[in-house]
Amino acid sequence: MLQTLSVKDFAIVGAAEITFAGGMTAVTGETGAGKSLLVDALLLLAGQRADAGIVRQGCERAELSATFALGDAPAALAWLRAEDFDEGDACQLRRVIRSEGTSRAWINGRPATLTQLQALAESLIEIHGQHEHQALLQRAHQLALLDAYGGHGAERDRVAELATRWRAADAEIRRLSGGQDHSERIAMLEHQLDELDRHALTPPELEALNETHKRLANAGQLLQGSEAVAELLDGDSEFAALRALTRAQNELGRLAQLDPALESSRELLDAAAIQLGEAHSAIGRYRDGLELDPDRFAEIEAQIARLHELSRKHRVPAAELKAHAETLRTELAALHGAGERLESLQRERETLRRDYAVAAAALSQMRGAAAKRLDKQVTALMAELGMAGGRFETEFAVADDATPNAAGAERAEFLVSANPGQPPRPLRKVASGGELSRISLAIEVATLGMDDVGTMVFDEVDSGIGGAVAEVVGRKLRELGGKCQVLCVTHLPQVAAQAHAHLRVAKSADGAATEVAIEPLDDSARRDEIARMLGGVRITRETLAHAQQMLGSATRGG
Length: 558
Hints:
Layout: E1 2-10, E2 13-19, E3 24-28, H1 37-45, E4 61-69, H2 74-82, E5 90-98, E6 103-107, E7 110-112, H3 114-124, E8 125-128, H4 139-150, H5 153-177, H6 182-199, H7 203-217, H8 219-234, H9 241-258, H10 263-289, H11 294-314, H12 321-336, H13 339-384, E9 391-398, E10 410-417, E11 425-426, H14 433-447, E12 455-459, H15 467-481, E13 485-489, H16 493-496, E14 501-509, E15 514-520, H17 523-535, H18 541-557
Parallel strand pairs: 3-13, 3-14, 8-12, 12-13
Antiparallel strand pairs: 1-2, 1-4, 4-5, 5-6, 6-7, 9-10, 10-11, 14-15
Helix pairs in contact: 2-3, 4-13, 5-13, 6-12, 7-11, 8-10, 9-10, 13-14, 14-15, 17-18
């Protein structure tokens, strides 16, 4: 149930905080006073997209917040817990829209997306009279409402349970068999393992193979280069490193006899000569071991190409093919031992399908009977609400998915013909907002708020009606207010008089700015407001008496 709504710098409202009670609350005011601003604020808190135009002129941002008690909204409470937004048995929605058009939202003080606001609001509030913001227009909600009306909760839960179990068994079968026939999967795994066992290498083996490939690919250049280096170290040239070093050793040895201080330098040259000699010997051995082997090079190229092919085939890097083979080996071992488990699961799946078919058929039959009762009741209520000759029908269609579905074997759609001679059309395609509001009201009254939404808002449901029909609309809204919280924006005294509580919206201007005030009315103020709605600018004693009579009649009748 909506407890409070707070707005600041919103449209022409400077600041307002409204407290709501249960039952039916009427929202009235003169034409153009801004009655629908309450509905607009709730729509924005329910995730409707906003533009900068809703920010009060000259202000940086508009701020909106609403607090809901969740005692009558178990679905909302479950959603909050599932999304980690829960905060006890209350919920606060908050939204800030900035003048440049950006906005932010919070649920119980935690940042939220508009999609999350929309998902939560579907369980908190229904706004009738705005085509695009009614859960009642959604086919899934219509089917759930029909089941609630027919009292099919246990049967629907049974169907959902069987469908869930069937899908779990089917998923397990596909997991064990890899989505294929059991024997086909085993054969494929055995073939893949044979390939991998013959060709896959461990990371060190792959690294050694790549090094060999690189050496063979560059064997000519390596042979030529090593020969050139060996020649530089100890060739025929008098400038070869080892020859020059020998001459330096001899000269430094002679000089060291004259000055012992040069002895350490001579020792360094001796060590360098040893190192150069070893390098020359190693390069010679390397050169002698090199060979140009085109056949070996082609063999390694083919081996690397096979590894790349296996890498693409299994979608893993070549260095991980060996590890992937072990994963497949584990799966193959599990499949070899899963034959009995698969047979058991296949039998279970078939049993679940048969049980589901029986349960779904029984639910379908119950839905058909409930639809006939609902169609008759809503059609009668439509006549009472000024749409005599109109017709309401529930149309069923077999679900496209042949597999067991948690919602049952069919989908439902509410069809409406608002005027005699017109063919029924889907409720979501009804063009007239006033007609849609009254049809929605008829459905809600017929089902007596059987869905989980605790707050229903009717925006101008009395559009285009008056007299006795307006009084009927008021009585139906009051009746609905006995089951859930109802907010009704209205311009008809017959409707407003039926409310349990009353809010008045008034606009004032001082030449520089326009302000809107929203105030709750006590009994005396309610009488005056009803009288204003009855008599216009000039309020007579008779008008006040009529207003008091209407209020008294509503209290006695409600």
